[in-house]
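Model it.
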Amino acid sequence: MIAGKKKRNNSFCPRINSGAKRILTGIVLSTVFSLFADDLQLDTKVPLGLAHDGQILWIGDAQTRELTGYDVAQKKKLATRTLAYDMRDLAYWAPNIVTVAPNYIFVINPINGDLVDKIPLKGIADPVAIALDMHQAYIYNRADKKIHRVHMVDRLQFGSFTPEITADVRSLTFYKGFLWAIAKDGKAYKISPSDGSQISFLPLPESSYGITFVDGGLYVARPGQVRSVDFIETENYVAAAKRSFTIAGELELTLPWSEEVRKRESRLQLKYALLPITAHQRIAGLRADPFTRFGRWEDGSHTSEISLPQASAERSRTHQLQFQVTLYNLTHIFNAQLIKLYFKNPELPDSIRVYLDALPLAAADQASVEGFRKDWLAKNDGKHPIYVIAAVMKDPQMKTDTRCAIFRSLGIPSRRMKFVDLDSRKTSEFVQVYLQPTGWVTITSRYDATKPKEFPVANNELELYSPDDLQILPRIVAGKAGTVAAVPELMKFQKLQIITSSAE
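Modeled.
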């Protein structure tokens, strides 16, 4: 895309639950443009330094000591200069640029490469990254894994903090009140400049070194290139790596009523929902043959219903579906602010309370649920639900129904959700939990119980439907006691075809 006015869409999920609406209206950044018609190609090896002075984008190579400028407005590369001293990360400090060296900040004239000044640092023996907020410098010291604050004019150091990042930092930049750090684990972390607490993170292209923002767009330097990174960020998730598909498939619906029920009941009805619109996926152009009218539930799911006359002999119904879907790599992140918001307002919408109902389980499974519930409340009462989830998910042998039942017994709404992997064409069933103020969160196979704040969903995973969303009238009962039975599998999405696909 050519540089120009940025297009922003702060509400891309129509008709979703109120909690999700609040989150989506809080989108703070969506980079959907590029300064370069193509990625900027450069002869760089380890481009740790990336800084923008308002006109020129400066790229510094830590291996070759070469400093290269790129005029953003003119779309023209400037002459490359080889410096006489080592260079790491870069930041702009008008009218110069700065880098870090053991126990010093170097102030550089970027036009001729001259060393203008050296600002001494105490106790910062291995600085690798620097970011500036006006005259306030933030320097990451690899020796103690801390970010140190330095005032560039007064030349005073005042305090440090340990960033909530599990890998060494390669580069830093400051943007709109927050620090952004590229770490060796391949992610860009957004952190608080006051205490280093993590706000969110963004997976990056492989071998990303330098980082900066230019006119609201995020750019990273990699060996041989500088490229933009498109993403969407809200208060509780970051979505990136968009993939788009046109898909066809077959939806088979089983109509479950027995002969006795069909003769007795005057009204037989099956309501179902599929293909929800979420932060992870957008669905458009859903068509069914034979035609059926789709409405929307509050959570964005496409809904329809089947009503049969008394004593109908129809046992199943099949629709050929076709639709477009856009998927993102998305990670819901429960940072400190979100956890506080949960405790301020843990109340659930009325439409969600149904997902707290007890599930029909075998006696042994029900005993396991009750045992876990009592043990958890005795030792961990008052903790945020993400820690319950981590404890449950540590047992890989636990059945999905048992997990859902444990969550429900502890006041966490839960449901099963069918997904299909568009790369392997395999179907999986994951658990979803409803957490205020975020809404529904999926616990996929990528979830790591050692990282309880992170809930990732990949851009090849299409959310199909929840068996727990089916509404059957009259309900299926078990035995003479009249208790509600487990609902059998009444929906199947099969014969998947990918007609078109693209990736960004």
